[in-house]
Amino acid sequence: ELPPSEFMQVADSTWLVLSVVSNGREPPGCQATGVTKIARSVIAPLAEHHVSVLMLSTYQTDFILVRERDLPVVIHTLAGEFDIYREESGECVPVTCDDVSNGFLKPKPAASPTLHPVQSPQTRFCVLTVAPDTLPAIATMLIDVLFYSHSPPWEAGASSQDLDSITFFSFSLIEGYISIVMDAETQKRFPSDLLLTSSTGELWRMVRIGGQPLGFDECGIVAQIAEPLAAADISAYYISTFNFDHALVPEEGIAEVIQLLQQRQDSGR
Questions:
Q1: What is the rounded average pLDDT of the residues 127-148?
Q2: What is the value of pTM for the model shown?
Q3: Which residues form the Cytosolic arginine sensor for mTORC1 subunit 1/2 ACT-like domain (predicted)?
Q4: Where are the domains of the chain?
Q5: Which residues on adjacent β-strands are paired with residue 36?
């Protein structure tokens, strides 16, 4: 419904959403499986079959977006590990490989993925949710933060690869469930009694992937981060965007994460 505009870029693909849950029938409000927990079973196999994915973690669960044209390869790749369902009129209908066999093309061997640079700003982030009935109480503040509040832009010519800070705010509303990522300073502007987080109230640090816009044709970008973190049993909250990918990890583990990713970079050279 958005009018065409010279200021709006639209990716030349239609995407479908995969929701990965523990038994295939839980609602979106179930316990998140976690990006690192599905690194070996979903993300890595799709990368090996040359399927590009967008990853969207939320407070409640994790979603993987795949291009509609890649669906036959996705189903053939995951059918051995998962029960796969498609939603029809609100009902979950089982999907088998036979349903898409006519559209399946054996994927070409994927080239060695590019190891993109990673940057870790000093900004500390919070992962939050809001009860839907309290959303009107913070709507004005949300609009102000989303559209009118901007930190000074980071200069691309900075001498250090590490960023001092980064402007990042994510708001998602999926089937009534709200998920927000904001920096700790921005959180102070909101009423504390309306923002819900885990009982530990942990803070997160970010690893941003990509020195320039990544595009959508390359595969293996999410796997580049998720696989080493999964091997080290480090949880991560992952958000792909139009230009860059972002992985949030618990603040106390950021030094180990940077070391793991640096080792992967060095070994890939």
A1: 93
A2: 0.80
A3: 116-199
A4: 1-150+159-268
A5: none
